[in-house]
């Protein structure tokens, strides 16, 4: 996955190099030089120089493809011939032959560094092979512009509702008298229920992660479980803790809908305004902090999300199950319990901090998750219905997950 991410990012940087830098940044594409440096930094986390022990858990012991890619990228960065890259430094006796690379291009399996390496030999048929590969890069660029352009268009449309959203957030600080027992939960009681449900989630997740490793399609044996079963298990793992919390908190099942606000109605204008604000904050945080963080070399990509069933997994898990289950726990239980005794802004901030920390992610992603948690809490407080927060969370996740699948998980041939 790290190799695929590096390849697609470099292709996009190359394919959009003539685009103005501000517009490139808007589409999440960096310059070729910065993308190259970032790719090298990420791959160096995984590939050790020959004769050196690497403590990183993702170390590619004996992975010749990773070593070959890194050697070519380093040569390009240093403006040397890719054919004379430091292959031995990374444990390779020799790089692939010209004919091997030509075969990759014909079969649609080439990478950005394959083209750089192949072009160094100045063969008579180089131009034809490069043109064939550039056609696939053009397809990737087109898909990226459409996918991320749709998110940009939705964000621009949501800007019209930002003033009303901000006004609703400010008014959320003061509400009428408490009318049902959900608004009498004290922080201690709510926190106890939240912790119990979260511990249950950790138990379920630990068991599920042991099974998830079998889903990766390595070799020809396929996954241990069919993908529909895997998707169902993933959803069950997410929903069970929320169901435990609801069972402890509510006297009657219908109260989940009527007094918890889970049945709606949701405020569409509030969702669009909050979504636009989230996208602007997301863009600002990435521009400000991404350069200081190497992050996950795979960019969070998973082999389980390859192919059509992978898209189904991403939509069901990240865009449906996670928003519902997480909003019930973090906003419906934790935030609401805190807001019953604390100012709404303080309760939203505290619940957002918890929401970010329990995801166990580094750097910019940690800040982004915290922002999502704060915005969904304020949306819940402003609309008085959990469904509004769920729709906002689902829309934000879909704006990340679906373009990501289109760009990184679909074949280019």
From TrEMBL:
Keywords: Membrane, Transmembrane, Transmembrane helix. Residues 309-398 form the CAAX prenyl protease 2/Lysostaphin resistance protein A-like domain. The keyword Mitochondrion does not apply. The chain crosses the membrane at residues 149-169, 189-208, 228-250, 270-289, 309-330, 342-361, 367-396. It comes from the Bacteria. InterPro entries: CAAX_protease, Rce1/LyrA-like_dom. It holds the Pfam family Rce1-like. Signal peptide: none annotated. The keyword Repeat does not apply. This is CAAX prenyl protease 2/Lysostaphin resistance protein A-like domain-containing protein. It comes from Haloferula sargassicola.
């Amino acid at each position: 996955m790290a190799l695929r991410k590096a390849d697609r990012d470099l292709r996009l940087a190359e394919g959009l190099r003539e685009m103005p830098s501000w517009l490139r940044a808007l589409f999440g594409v960096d310059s070729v030089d910065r993308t190259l440096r970032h790719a090298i930094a990420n791959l160096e986390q995984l590939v050790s120089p020959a004769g050196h022990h690497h403590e990183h858990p993702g170390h590619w012991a004996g992975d010749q493809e990773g070593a070959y890619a890194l050697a070519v990228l380093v040569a390009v960065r240093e403006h040397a011939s890719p054919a004379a890259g430091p292959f031995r430094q990374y444990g390779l006796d020799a790089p692939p032959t010209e004919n091997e690379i030509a075969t990759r291009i014909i079969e649609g399996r080439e990478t950005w560094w394959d083209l750089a390496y192949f072009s160094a030999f100045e063969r008579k048929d180089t131009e034809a092979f490069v043109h064939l590969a550039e056609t696939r890069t053009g397809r990737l660029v087109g898909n990226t512009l459409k996918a991320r352009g749709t998110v940009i268009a939705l964000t621009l449309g949501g800007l019209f509702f930002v003033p009303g959203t901000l006004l609703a957030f400010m008014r959320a600080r003061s509400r009428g008298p408490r009318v049902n027992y959900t608004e009498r939960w004290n922080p201690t009681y709510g926190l106890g229920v939240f912790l119990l449900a979260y511990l249950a989630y950790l138990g379920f997740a630990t068991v599920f992660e042991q099974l998830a490793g079998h889903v990766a399609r390595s070799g020809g044996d396929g996954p241990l479980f069919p993908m529909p079963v895997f998707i169902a298990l993933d959803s069950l793992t997410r929903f069970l803790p929320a169901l435990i919390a609801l069972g402890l908190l509510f006297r009657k099942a219908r109260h989940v809908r009527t007094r918890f606000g889970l049945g709606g109605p949701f405020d569409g204008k509030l969702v669009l305004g909050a979504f636009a604000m989230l996208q602007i904050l997301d863009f600002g945080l990435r521009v400000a902090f991404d350069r200081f963080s190497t992050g996950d070399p795979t960019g969070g990509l998973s082999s389980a999300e390859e192919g059509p069933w992978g898209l189904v997994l991403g939509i069901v898990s990240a865009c449906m199950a996670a928003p519902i289950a997480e909003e019930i726990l973090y906003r419906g239980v934790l935030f609401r319990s805190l807001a019953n005794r604390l100012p709404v802004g303080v309760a939203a901030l505290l619940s957002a901090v918890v929401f970010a920390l329990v995801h166990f992610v580094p750097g910019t992603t940690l800040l982004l998750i915290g922002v999502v948690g704060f915005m969904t809490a304020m949306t819940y407080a402003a609309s008085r219905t959990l469904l509004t927060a769920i729709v906002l969370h689902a829309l934000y996740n879909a704006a990340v997950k679906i373009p990501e699948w289109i760009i990184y998980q679909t074949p280019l041939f």
